[in-house]
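Let us work through a complete example step by step.
Step 1: write down the sequence.
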Amino acid sequence: MKPKFWFVIAGMTAFLALLIAMVTIFSTGTGPRAYVAKNYTRAVQLDKPGDDDNKAYTSNLEPSTVVDDITDTWEPISQYARGSGVYLRYSDDAMIVQPRDRGSVIHVMELDEAYNHYHHVVGGVWGWGGPHGQTFRGGGPGSGK
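Step 2: predict the structure and record it as tokens.
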């Protein structure tokens, strides 16, 4: 057989492998939202009302263990722990991991909706307006204007 034939076969095989990889990547999703959806149990009855993008998940693990699992895989921009739960901020999403019965509930929501809902907890920690939550301009009288 001619070498040209083998190049054509190799090119078709490479294209097929690339196509399979792309379908796999885009069908399973990436990011912290997809990770939680894949690894935790969906709990529609625990979704926060009024936010169609909010999804609740449950786990039999303690909140600290769930947070460690999520943050080991997807490092948040900001993480804040309080008695009511652990608040994880990502670029587009937020995750709130709270104790529930003998386990945890994980609320995954868009960042702005999470901020609106939990501003009384994370308002001074996450800030608002900058990519990493820095809204303090500092300085003395007249600075930052």
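Step 3: interpret the result. Residues 28-118 form one domain.
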